[in-house]
Amino acid sequence: MDSARSTSSATLVSRTTAIDDPPFAAAFDALPSPRTTWSAPDDALVIGGGSAATLTASGPDRFAAIRTAAEELFSSGDVHAGTEAARPRVFGGFAFHEGACAGDPWSSFPEARFVLPSVQITVADNGSWLTVTAVGDDASAVTVEDRLERERKRLAELGDDRPEEGDRSPQPSRPSRPGIREQRRTTSREAWRGSVSAAIDRIRGGNLRKVVLAQALEADLEADFPRAATIERLAAKYPDCHRYCFEPDDGSSVFFGATPERLVSLRGRTVETDALAGTTGRGETPAEDEWLAEELLDDEKNVHEHELVAETVREQLEPYAASVSAGARRVRRLATVQHLHTPITAELNADRHVLELVEALHPTPAVGGLPPERALETIHETEPFDRGWYAAPVGWIDAAGNGAFAVAIRSAVASRRRATLFAGVGIVADSDPDREWDEIQLKYRPILDELETETRTDGAGTDETGRDDGK
Ligand SMILES: C=C(O[C@@H]1C=C(C(=O)O)C=C[C@H]1O)C(=O)O
To answer: Where is this region: Disordered (predicted)?
Structure first.
């Protein structure tokens, strides 16, 4: 049954104060669960803790249900945000499809869940801010302002532990990477070849144009998974990506990642989105990188795979838009892979809520396929694991219905001693199962590099495939 549940009932009270730049890991560790972090190249860094209100929903109507619940939550408010970046926003995400959160490691993740943090740290271009928010009959300006002052003092004490400039005394080091004791794949190389061939048969049979097939990799960790340190390292390594982390209510695990793919951002009537599909590796040298990029731009199979996405995104936006325009196709270079990328912008023909666009666009053929129903059927029949929030929309919504959503790829769920990683590839008629297998290994690298004790520098994935060829 579909459901929408909100723990909010009455007024929202929110107060913000300017603070010194907080030490990320100490601030993250000091906040209560459920914690959220969000940062993007054109967005402030947010670290949220606790919940002033939680919106959850399930079933096919989960997008509309969250929208209604968010509109209700934001319908009345006593807000002194001080700066735009610290205005009340709910942060969260959706399951890839209905029923995707049934099994491990997703059982604590609802099919849609957004949290209005009770304490939020915002690091924006114009400084750092601390916000306290409460919702409900007993929320009052006095109690929120009291709490703000207490949280400010607590945070300032964390900041006191930082070295003075020029202080050369030994500093506590970041927790190191946990190390991997054992890895298990959901899909053997043989099973993969079989699934890709079957998908290609469907495509050649005319039923399907493209399908994105994914795998999961379960890693048992040698030491506890260091949440804050991992998020910090991903932020340093992937400054051009959307970085996200979401804890379920019980804080028992965390879904996190650094994705190059924006699903949609809406500000007023201006929409920005990306078509991102078609992949090659990184070279050993700048010249080799260039050569691989040129080859990718000219490669018929990758360009076809990419154009299916770009065309579909444009078509899906058209009913909502006064104008849609696409930039030139280019190559997006990341630490371990390079992708074909087309930036797409649109002006809407009427005021819309960002979740209307999220629902219209998800899943794009970059993570689902074409036609969507056939692709989803193929995914269901093929993948032996639950996608959960992998490859689904994650982001934020504000009171005006603006928002920013990313596609949650290059991601994993980690509990104390276990991480489950996800990666997928687009299959078209002339895909080669072994090359697609190799591409999946490259797409695990951003997360795997944060779990293994030794970081490799070549980015080619040979170590991983060499140790375990998936048989
Ligand atoms: C599905 C993933 O990536 C998607 C698939 C791509 C491809 O097939 O070339 C490229 C980028 C993403 O749109 C993933 O990383 O898990």
So the answer is: 155-192, 451-471
